[in-house]
Amino acid sequence: MLAVKTNNPTTLTEEIQIKIREVMEQYPAGKSKSALLPVLHIVQDENAGWLSVEAMEKVAELMGLRPIEVYEVATFYSMYNLKPVGKFLLEVCRTGPCAIMKGEWLIDYLKKKLKIDIGETTVDGVFTLKTVECLGACGYAPMMQIGEYYYEHLNSEEKVDKLLEDFRMKGFNKN
Amino acid sequence: MGKKILLEHIDKPGIKSYEVYRQNGGYNSVEKALKEMKPSDIVEEVKKSGLRGRGGAGFPAGMKWSFIDKKSGNPRYLVCNADESEPGTFKDRYLMEFIPHLLIEGMITSSIALESNLGFIYIRGEYKWIKKILEQAISEARAAGWLGHNILGTGYSLELVVHPGAGAYICGEETALLESLEGKRGNPRIKPPFPAVKGLYGNPTVVNNVETIATVPWIINNGGDAYAKIGIGRSTGTKLISACGNINKPGVYEIELGLPVEEFLNSDEYCGGVHNGKMLKAVVAGGSSVPILPAELFLKTKKGESRLMSYESLSDGGFESGTMLGSGGFIVYDEDQCIVRNTWNFSRFYHHESCGQCSPCREGTGWMEKVLHNLESGHGKMSDIDLLWDIQKKIDGNTICPLGDAAAWPVASAIRHFREEFEWHIEYTHEAQKRNYGLLKSTKEFFAASVV
Amino acid sequence: MKVTIDGVEIEVEPGTTIMNAARKVGGDIVPPAMCYYTSLPGSGGKCRACLVKVAQGSTADPRPMPKLVASCCTNVQEGMVVQNITSPEVLETRKGIVEFLLINHPLDCPVCDQAGECDLQNFAFDHGRQQTRYDFERRTFDVINIGEDIKLHMTRCILCYRCTMVADQLTDGREHGILWRGDKSEISTYIQKAVENDFSGNMIDVCPVGALTDKHFRFRNRVWFLNPMDSHRDCKKCSGKVVLWMRGNEVYRITGRKDQYNELKEFICNDCRFENYDVKNWIIEGPREIANESVINSNHYEHGTKALPKELFSKINNEKWENV
User: Fold this and answer.
1) Chain A partners of B166 at a C-beta cutoff of 8 Å?
2) pTM of the full structure
3) Do B74 and B197 belong to one domain?
4) Is residue C179 part of a domain?
5) ipTM of this complex prediction, to 2 decimal places
6) Domain span including residue B243
């Protein structure tokens, strides 16, 4: 399936462009392509948590790469979202060690609670549910990542409800 | 209490900060390495220590260092593999999060040994907050004069860069990691040439795990011989084990290699035993890719000896009846867990994480996942077990990188040791949808005998 | 240095791969190759079709290698002993590789333009099992156009990466690449984009299967009904040395000249490939020997000039074609 342009013009502030150049300069002369992964993270964070075709074209332009080099990389790594996501991305671990410690329950409960399936976003646009592979928190299962941090030991409805409520409040306050 | 090397100061309040770390002898190894030792001396000490790569493969670290090409005059790089993604493993995260300066100190001392002026820490993209912790530690170290230009007035310069991944288990494989660090897809390279000859940007490169690098300062301060005295046989020193699954006290523990597995599993100092008073069914001792063992083979070798937490003892019996220490991801399964479901889960993981470059892994991992899903969901056939066995055999050893092997081994070991549970899933489909199989007959017999 | 492959001793230059050492001898001892391509540096190692057993590493270190190695990217050592078809382990593994390559392949040979000159078809015929054990739904993709002249059937692709290497090497900028990962990987431009440059047509020739096909030739004829003719013309962009695939006087398609391993030694430009279907534009040298054991030469003509259409005889000696 070919992707289509989505009318998502990506403008990066001067501040962000400076940040990108700084990241590129960390690498040896002529090796600034190395900065592609960190730069895509920066642009994704700036672009409401996802990478549109336009955003990737912008990255290619800033880094002097061909767009296909950016598409190839962006589609390889699972942290880059190539479709719009909600305000908060719930990345729930589904791998073995979590799965035997109520990890499967957590996923089912979130689906039921948010009334969405994996990969979907709640109608109010606040939460997107995504399952991910082992996040390195096996001893603190079940868990999920929201934004920068991990939220662990989510083994009861009360804990999950409270967490979602906290984020929902934050989400609405931000608007 | 066993010997603590990496976590010696972990309980000291404020050890995350530069000041407290320094007060506890931090960065002494840098001074010693720069002022009292030649780079070759450092390599020699690490060789003497017998330190083995802590990322999983267990290759002697000093040996790896000695392969690096210093003659060509090309820039050399040290790359720290902090792409911790092996299911069951969360030890590097613990080190970096709670005692970040230990890794920075190790990076500096190791870079001195390799005569490298630029080092990278490739950290998995999900550890976003830990990346910040490391960057903070680096800037503190720089401010204190341990990094940057002309360190301690010796003329030696070093810069460190923290580089985030973006969600790809394969980037834990060292050549895939280097590709990723060059801004490309994480496709492993064909070896040879090895990174020590042609690594990052085509230059000589050493890739070491976080824990390996964090061990170097202690070895420099105390000598390789002192390190080699700790542990057992060729398993020298200590190892971080991340324990998880159905145990009372999951977490990260530093053990002296050679600790009996039974003590690690049951003593309150470590795992604290299987939770809820359940029986032990199986253990994956070193991260999801190592063979799973039923309780009886895990606790005692085929010869009837008590198993120890060491490279040699855990692999006693080969793949027929042994496993591997691997990365130290210790996953415990109690009697209520389903091995078929767990094997399917792991298969799904490897299928999801296959880079897709070579055909056996790209096609085989997905096939295994589908067959296992059928077995688990009650649509299996008896012939599926032999089919699975054949698929894993055709993947194992035939791929560009070890991900193929890592995908094959859990399937192979599950069939080898738990075949009766697979057959039960097929013969008693309806029952298998309602309840789990429980302990193997052999495990029940083993525990019954040990009570008497 | 001396190396022994399936009992045949060969003397080769240091730095030669096992594959190329075997090709010096030719015949059955040559391992199959689905992704390696001599003129594309960086190719090889991916399909694992060419895995061989190294029974003795070298004279200095006679230990066998622990795993099978990819012969296309393993260099020979003095005194190395290699087993290709003499190793049951290699043959068994190859059976597995065929099966892996086929589980997601549509097996639509009856309607595929590549049939008759397909590396995968040959490989499966030589090394495959009769029936598949895969009974799940196969991976499918939409057929897309990449430019005016080329059609991409991703469903048939075996991900050899050759076409991306052609683009890297022959063109000033690649527009297509490998997207996604694992068995979801696909060759694509990501967004609708034409691959347009003077040498893009070579992607068709390097494709080992029917994933990249010539839009001008699609469904027009079977390759084994056509007579391949070595021909050339003056071309500013390339050597102008091509093969015209003809039936009567009609040119059905134009390709580069492939050797017995299905590899082009010289790449040709798109002008030669797509713009010169008029036989008058070419100087015909004579019938092309298709050395590969394929259906193309199995039924049709003897080697040499015997089968050359009569009216073309007089034109063999590099005369400019005028009229027939």
Assistant:
1) 37, 40-41, 77-80
2) 0.95
3) yes
4) yes
5) 0.96
6) 235-334
